[in-house]
What we know:
The protein has a single domain (about 45-220), classed as Jelly Rolls (Sandwich), CATH 2.60.120. It is about 0% helix and about 45% strand. The strands form 2 sheets. It has an 8-stranded antiparallel sheet, with no helix packed on it. The chain is mainly beta.
Amino acid sequence: xxxxxxxxxxxxxxxxxxxxxxxxxxxxxxxTALPSAVPTGxxxxxxxxxxxxxxxxxxxxxxxSTYDIYKFEFINIHPSTDNVSFQFNLSTxxxxxxxxxxxxxxxxxxxxxxGTDTPFGYAAGRDLAQSTSDQVIMGNGANLGADNDQSSxxxxxxxxxxxxxxVKHFIGVAHSIEYRDYSWRSTFAGxxxxxxxxxxxxxxxSSGNIDDGxxxxxxxx
Length: 221
């Protein structure tokens, strides 16, 4: 049975059901805004880049202290050249250099279309140990195919890139159609071993252009 409230002074707890007539903004639909200090966890689209025979895709602005997490979604990344890897690197100097030192791990799993080969395991050729080289997302042993129907899609999360105290962690997962007609799922993670703020990220192929595809950058708090 609904109860009404006539006096709240000195009351520490309430029980029962309040009728909506005594509550202002009684439904979530009536909430139009949250205080700025309340994190929503909802991704905010910051930038979209579309490749068209592009040598690389770079995000040169928007990576700062505004968000704790930056998410990059890459959709149907298609190389212009067969048997190449898709990879990325980071910058601390607004893109003058993409050579941040990284240490990473890499696992993958695959299956060919005939169902006769199902490789799985740690991919030693795709990890980095205190290296400034590009981090492979897909490829380098499971390289991308350039057939018209072949592409790669996935997600990378970059954590607290503007920290001046901690290294910068990242986690990624991707799937591609390999040039030999394999389904490949890759999972990688690591850290940029710098306490300098990261300012830019660059995506490119190991050889040739990014013929087609889209990369979206989101901010999350």
